[in-house]
Write a sequence for this structure.
DNA sequence: GTTAGCACTCCATAGAAAAGAGTGCTAATA
DNA sequence: TATTAGCACTCTTTTCTATGGAGTGCTAAC
């Protein structure tokens, strides 16, 4: 059987109605509120076909029909084609003035949630380059050193090193020189065992300080690369606005995932791989078990220089895909604007904060 | 009317039974499962008295009684007296080996939640001293400086300063000397306008760098003092285990507060003021609106040197107060153990991380 | 002071009945 | 041949009623 124009119109009507109401929609509704001028009986016949084709199902005999994942998929694919690049300006972003990166991101995700009435997530931008830029040891007191490591993208990490023996300013100076000349400009993979043992030898009695510095480097790079990257969420309570998600069972599982955050990484990773497009996961398509009853829409934002993160919306399958995608695009644009677009990448971001 | 021994026994039995079942408890239950050997009729008379005294209420005529906030309060106060300091060892804390402070705290709060089956919160330790310990400017490139500020308690904050004009190593050196000699050892209140304009004058053309450094100082102190301090929560999904909290309305509000976190500050503040004891908020006593149907138990932990934070449990009013208080005590003890007890305060904590 | 007994209240549960929504099928129609 | 009207049928939802049970309060007896 083929999905002809009329079937498509009807399917579309069903989807849209269901998006609004969340209730199964019957033939009569479609017949009345479409300009097809067909009787409910005809619609019924078509619906029967559509059901056979797998686009809609009945929750039970003698209920209306609801769209299947497949229908949503069709609908979304069509949307993507239709709306080319019409980014509507979200006027009141209001985030320009907040100075701290982390605060801004929290704001953004909150905004996204309250704007869409769904749950929002945002992964902090992480740097893909990972070259060591600058290492500094400073003496706090004879038995304590402050170690600061800066990697490209101006991610800063500090660490306090406790010493067994006293150390002099001069020794600290030497160590600084040594570390910077040998490690600066290198990536994680370039700092190999040979180099490490070399440097340790040169450091002589202070080799264990070198070890600690390397730990810090490893840590910041690891933190930036995977697992541990920051994810913010907001609007978890919005799931209670959609009855189909708010029974104890489901709600509990969802809340739990949102709280744990680590599985949300899956979206970030998938989003990274897919390039900078907008990604839509409908029901079973989701990589996250507890969201098989939801739809998730994600987008990648880029801050120039390979610094990138992911924003996403989690809602019921009957979410307003159009509005959600628009919101994501707008927010992505705003993030670019605030933190430096590709255009002005020459002037570094006004103020990039250290990692959390 | 007076709360004599018998009334008390009965009230206690009512509370305990209700804690277990969550259902209103009737006179017959008490008569059977207490060793008072009184008939249900007698119990009924006493219950009638207890109701008059405000310790129990009937949800409706011809239901059993449930304890009021007042009854819980009595019960808890009694508990505190009874259990002096019998800290039961929680064997499997398993946190000793994780090196990063933040990770440990997240672990701890997760543990607390899963151990108690309630929702847990934890505020990261914050320092009460707030003296500047060390300031460092380092040149990243001719137009960028890295500014690191360390305050007592080894809280580290960094910030990147963008410059209008190039700067030389020598100028950086001079600025470092100036800043450290003038600001080190001072508290926020000691850094006043007079001093600031003095230093700015001495800094000459680089006075705006001084401003930025001061901003960083202000920020770290502000972050440590109030508003913005880190709070971790875990086990939000546990509220679904208690029917009296898991209707959409209530659950939504609770989840929302837990997510926003900022109002949870109220508990931290209150806890700070109350000293290091254990604090119990029953229903209406809670400073947080959305938790009027819950009980909240908090405890302050101290890491020596004035570094302190709060741990807390949020659950239904019929929570197992005894176990919760024990858990809190145990966790508090463990935190001390891991991060350095008062005893070994000479040897600073193995590894205190920078603020998030 | 304690208890047995009883009438009474209220809630929870189950079932039956009614109402409603929607379908599928058939036969008539354009 | 495609469309439609009509109707029987199915299944859910809602409403109502009846019934049982839990628990109380009161009274009278011990």
């Amino acid at each position: 059987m083929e999905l002809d124009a009329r079937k498509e119109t009807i399917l579309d009507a069903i989807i849209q109605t269901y998006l609004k109401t969340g209730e199964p929609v019957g033939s009569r509704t479609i017949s009345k509120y479409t300009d097809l001028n067909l009787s409910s009986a005809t619609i019924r016949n078509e619906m029967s076909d559509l059901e056979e084709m797998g686009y809609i199902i009945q929750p039970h005999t003698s209920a209306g029909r609801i769209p299947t994942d497949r229908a949503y998929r069709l609908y979304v694919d069509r949307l993507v084609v239709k709306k080319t690049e019409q980014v509507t300006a979200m006027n009141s972003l209001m985030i320009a003035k907040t100075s701290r990166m982390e605060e801004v991101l929290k704001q953004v995700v909150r905004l996204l949630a309250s704007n869409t009435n769904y749950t929002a997530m945002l992964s902090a931008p992480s740097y893909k380059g990972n070259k060591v830029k600058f290492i500094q040891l400073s003496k706090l007191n004879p038995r304590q050193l402050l170690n600061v490591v800066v990697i490209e993208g101006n991610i800063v990490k500090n660490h306090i090193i406790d010493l067994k023996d006293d150390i002099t300013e001069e020794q600290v100076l030497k160590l600084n020189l040594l570390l910077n000349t040998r490690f600066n400009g290198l990536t994680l993979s370039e700092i190999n065992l040979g180099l490490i043992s070399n440097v340790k030898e040169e450091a002589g009695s202070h080799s264990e300080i070198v070890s600690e510095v390397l730990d810090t480097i490893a840590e910041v790079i690891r933190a930036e690369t995977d697992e541990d990257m920051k994810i913010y969420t907001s609007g978890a309570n919005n799931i209670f606005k959609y009855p189909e998600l708010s029974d104890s069972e489901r709600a509990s599982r969802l809340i739990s995932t949102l709280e744990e955050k680590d599985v949300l990484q899956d979206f970030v990773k998938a989003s990274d791989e897919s390039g900078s497009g907008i990604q839509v996961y409908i029901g079973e398509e989701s990589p996250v078990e507890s969201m098989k009853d939801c739809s998730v829409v994600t987008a990648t934002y880029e801050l120039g220089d390979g610094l990138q993160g992911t924003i996403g919306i989690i809602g019921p399958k009957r979410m307003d895909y159009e509005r959600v995608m628009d919101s994501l695009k707008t927010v992505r644009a705003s993030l670019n604007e605030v933190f430096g677009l590709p255009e002005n990448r020459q002037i570094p971001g006004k103020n990039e904060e250290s990692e959390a």
About this structure: Chain A has three domains: 5-74, 99-124+229-338, 132-226. The first strand of chain A starts at residue 56 and ends at 57. The radius of gyration of chain A is 27 Å.
